[in-house]
Amino acid sequence: MVEHKPPNVYSRMLLPSVVGVLAFRVASRMAWENRESILKSILDMKETAAAFFKDWILEPIRDIVKTIRHKDNQISIMSQASIDSELMSLERMVVDFAARKGPGVDLELERNLIRQGSLGTVLEAYESSIKAPLYSALFGDLIQTLLIQGQKTKVDASMALRALDSLLKSNELTFSLIAAIPPILLAWSGYNFLRRLWLERIGKSRDQIYRKARLTIGRIFRILNSQIRDNISSQEHYTNQGFLLCEIHYLRQLIASIQFFSDQDDQEAFIESIRDLESTSLSPQQRLNVIHHISAFYPIPFRLSAE
User: Fold this and answer.
1) What's the CA gap between 128 and 271, in Å, rounded?
2) In terms of Cα–Cα distance, which of 231, 211, 232, 241 is closest to 301?
């Protein structure tokens, strides 16, 4: 037993310590020589992440909240008061022009036609003026009719801008959501991807440890089963006992690597079972019974494996 015992902790840690010190020295030297570029890369990554979060996530969300809270206080391209003043100016131009044409003109009818977008009287005068454009420009109504039509065009453009402004305001919340949703989905997808990779890595590591634990239990079972024979020699008995202690020590390391038991009482009970396996006061059959107890009481991950 003494000849086959594990080496002391200093002997086991000598090689890893030397390799670790050398690797740390090389890595430290490389990091120090490239410290400026490493620091610059870290700062660039930090600024990029902060700018992405601020400009593409935080600001669109603020715009959405601002749109919801201040829907009636938004800046317009063209106000209704400006359109009304331009329309009233056009109405006065047409009415004055119609009043000069003769007393028989219905001024109220002209006002109604203007509100409906019609320039019937002005267009009739314009058609007459262009028959003699030079004379009408000097002594007639050609210039006045052109100016009235220019004012009408300005009113039409203002009303079109007002309609466009109303359309934009009515869909402003939709536009804000369209601007905010893609970066939020991108950030959420990236977070879920990294989280899934991390969980898969943890799950694979846990599954591998579970498999190693089952294989170790199977090897312990076979070692104890080989000791039940009557004709086993003393040397073979001690050799098997050394292998058994090595396997039990390996099982302890596996148990310590991850959290197998959520309940502390289960953890302590399992440690007691491990100690029973190490005990030389128990017969091989009794320790086999301990293996069956572990496999029955802790079916996952300690079910006996045939591998």
Assistant:
1) 113
2) 211
- Average pLDDT score over the chain: 78
Tokens of 262: 């959520």
For the record, the structure tokens of 178 come out as: 């369209």
- Helix (H), strand (E), coil (C) string for the chain: CCCCCCCCHHHHHHHHHHHHHHHHHHHHHHHHHCHHHHHHHHHHHHHHHHHHHHHHHHHHHHHHHHHHHCHHHCCCCCCHHHHHHHHHHHHHHHHHHHHHHCCCCCHHHHHHHHHCCCCHHHHHHHHHHCCCHHHHHHHCCHHHHHHHHHHHHHHHHHHHHHHHHHHHHHCHHHHHHHHHHHHHHHHHHHHHHHHHHHHHHHHHHHHHHHHHHHHHHHHHHHHHHHCCCCCCCHHHHHHHHHHHHHHHHHHHHHHHHCCCCCCHHHHHHHHHHHHHHHCCCCCHHHHHHHHHHHHHHCHHHHCCCCC
Lowest model confidence (mean pLDDT) among 67-71, 211-215, 251-255: 67-71
pLDDT score recorded for residue 143:
84
Q: What is the pLDDT of residues 68-120, one digit of tens each?
A: 776 555 555 667 777 778 778 888 888 777 777 766 666 777 777 777 777 77
